[in-house]
Specification:
Oligomer: single chain
Helix content: 40-55%
Strand content: 5-15%
Number of strands: 12
CATH superfamily of the largest domain: Type I PLP-dependent aspartate aminotransferase-like (Major domain)
Family: Belongs to the trans-sulfuration enzymes family. MetZ subfamily.
Bound molecules: pyridoxal-5'-phosphate
Shape: globular
Pathway: Amino-acid biosynthesis; L-methionine biosynthesis via de novo pathway; L-homocysteine from O-succinyl-L-homoserine: step 1/1
Largest sheet: 7 strands, mixed
Number of domains: 2
Strand order of the largest sheet: 1-7-6-5-4-2-3
EC number: 2.5.1.-
Distance between the termini: 59 Å
Region (Disordered): 1-29
Structural class: alpha/beta
Mean pLDDT: 96
Cofactor: pyridoxal 5'-phosphate
C-alpha cells in the first residue's frame, strides 16, 4: 500500500475539508485502483518468523491482526482525522462503542464525570447506569449553561461529556466556554459531534480534547451500516484509547469502513443540501405547529450561538404538538412520504416520537427533566425535494387536526 507517487504529507494535510472528504487517507495497492480497496482479511502473513517477531515488537512497520489494524479501516481513520483537524482517529463498530471506549479508557473508580442532561438515550445510560456501576460518580447538568459545568466540578472531576446540538431537544452547548472551563482544570472534554459532523462543526477548534462519532448517521449518510469514531491527540489515542480498544475489541469491520469511506465522499454536499432543506421545512412548520426547536431558525433560543459554531444547521430538528402522544402518533401515521423511523443522518426523511422510541428506556421523570415531552417529534430532513416534504407534512398535519 502506498500513497500517490510523490504525494507529500505536508501538502495533502493542507487540503480543505471537502477535498479531504474525497481523498484524505487514500492509499493504493500495487494495482493502482482509483476507488479505495476493500481488504476483507482478519490476519496478515509474514515472510519470515523474525518479521512476525519484529512486527509484534513494534520494530517493523506492518499489520498483525485486524482487531488492531486493517488497510481499509486505516484509510477511514486517516480521512476522519484529516476532516476533523485531529492528530489521530480510531474507528469503532458503532457510535456507542466509540462513546463507551472514549469514556472507559480514561476513567476509573473514584473519578467523576459531568455530562449533558439532554443526550442520546444510550449516552445517558452510560452516564446514569454504567459508569456509577464501576464506582465512577456522575453529575448531569443543563449543558446550555456553561456555569452549570463549573458548579458541578469536584477535585476528582476527570471528564466533561456532552453533545451539541443534543438529541433530540436541540440544546446547544457553548463549546468555547465549556472547553475553557475544562482546560483550566485539566479536565478532558469528550464531545459527541454526531449531529453536525466535521463538515459543519469542528469542536477541537474551540478547545475540545476528544471528539467522538456515530458514523452511522451523516458520515455513512445513506442508512446502511453502523460505525463509530474517536478523534484526539496522537498521544491520547496511542496511550489512553488504544490499550483499551486493542484488548477489548470494539473494532469496525473493513466492509463497514469501506461503506463509510464512500459516504464521506458526498458528506459535504449532502449535509449542506439537507441543512438548507431542513431550514425550508422548519420555516413551513413554524407557521403550523405550536413549538419548534430548530438551531437554524431565529426562534431557537440559542440560534446565534449555534450559527457561530456551526457552518449550517444540520438536517435534524424537533417540534412539538399540544395533543401529547396521541396527536404525535396520529401525525406520524398520516405521513405518506416521510418514513416513521428512529434513524437520523439518512438521505431519506425520517420522523420519530422520541418518548416512545429512542428515549423510551429513560424514565418519564428524566425525559421531563431533559425536555422531551409526550408531544415531541424529531425530524431528519433528507435529500428529497423539500417541497414534497412540505406537502407531505401539510397533509399529515391536517389529518392529525393541526
Ligand atoms: C446515534 C447516536 C449515537 C449512537 O450511535 P450508534 O452508531 O447508533 O451506536 C450516539 N450519540 C448520538 C448523538 C447519536 O445520534
Amino acid at each position: 500500500m502506498k500513497r500517490k507517487t510523490g504525494q507529500d504529507r505536508s501538502i495533502t494535510s493542507q487540503w480543505r475539508p471537502a477535498t479531504q472528504a474525497v481523498r484524505g487517507g487514500t492509499a493504493r495497492s500495487e494495482w493502482g485502483e482509483t476507488s479505495e480497496a476493500l481488504f476483507l482479511t482478519s490476519g496478515y502473513s509474514y515472510d519470515r518468523a523474525a518479521d512476525a517477531a519484529a512486527r509484534f515488537a513494534g520494530e517493523q512497520e506492518g499489520m498483525t491482526y485486524s482487531r488492531l489494524q486493517n488497510p481499509t479501516v486505516e484509510m477511514l481513520e486517516q480521512r476522519i482525522a484529516l476532516l476533523e483537524g485531529a492528530e489521530s482517529c480510531r474507528t469503532m463498530a458503532s457510535g456507542m462503542a466509540a462513546m463507551t471506549a472514549a469514556l472507559l479508557c480514561q476513567l476509573q473508580a473514584g473519578d467523576h464525570l459531568v455530562g449533558g442532561r439532554a443526550a442520546f438515550g444510550s449516552c445517558r445510560w452510560l452516564t446514569d447506569t454504567l459508569l456509577p456501576k464501576f464506582g465512577i460518580a456522575t453529575t448531569v447538568v443543563d449543558a446550555r449553561d456553561p456555569q452549570a459545568f463549573l458548579d458541578a466540578v469536584r477535585p476528582e472531576t476527570k471528564v466533561f461529556f456532552f453533545e451539541t446540538p443534543a438529541n433530540p431537544t436541540m440544546d446547544v452547548v457553548d463549546l468555547a466556554a465549556v472547553c475553557a472551563i475544562a482546560r483550566e482544570r485539566g479536565i478532558t472534554t469528550v464531545v459527541d459531534n454526531a449531529f453536525a459532523t466535521p463538515a459543519l462543526q469542528r469542536p477541537m477548534e474551540y478547545g475540545a480534547d476528544v471528539v467522538a462519532y456515530s458514523a452511522t448517521k451523516m458520515m455513512d449518510g445513506q442508512g446502511r451500516v453502523l460505525a463509530g469514531a474517536v478523534c484526539g491527540t496522537r498521544d491520547w489515542i496511542d496511550n489512553t484509547l488504544l490499550p483499551f480498544t486493542r484488548n477489548t475489541g470494539p473494532t469496525l469491520s473493513p466492509f463497514n469502513a469501506w461503506v463509510v469511506l464512500k459516504g464521506l465522499e458526498t458528506l459535504d454536499l449532502r449535509i449542506r443540501r439537507q441543512s438548507e432543506s431542513s431550514v425550508a421545512v422548519g420555516r413551513f412548520l413554524e407557521g403550523r405547529v405550536p413549538h419548534i426547536l430548530h438551531p437554524g431558525l431565529p426562534s431557537h433560543p440559542q440560534h446565534a450561538l449555534a450559527m457561530r459554531q456551526m457552518a449550517a444547521a444540520g438536517p435534524i430538528f424537533a417540534l412539538a404538538v399540544d395533543g401529547g402522544r396521541e396527536q404525535a402518533h396520529a401525525l406520524l401515521d398520516a405521513l405518506e412520504l416521510i418514513d416513521i423511523s428512529n434513524n437520523i443522518g439518512d438521505s431519506r426523511s425520517l420522523m420519530t416520537h422520541p418518548a416512545s422510541t429512542t428515549h423510551a428506556g429513560v424514565t418519564a421523570e428524566k425525559r421531563e427533566e431533559m425536555g422531551i415531552g409526550e408531544g415531541m417529534l424529531r425530524l431528519n430532513v433528507g435529500l428529497e425535494d423539500p417541497q414534497d416534504l412540505i406537502e407531505d407534512l401539510d397533509q399529515a398535519l391536517t389529518r392529525a387536526g393541526l
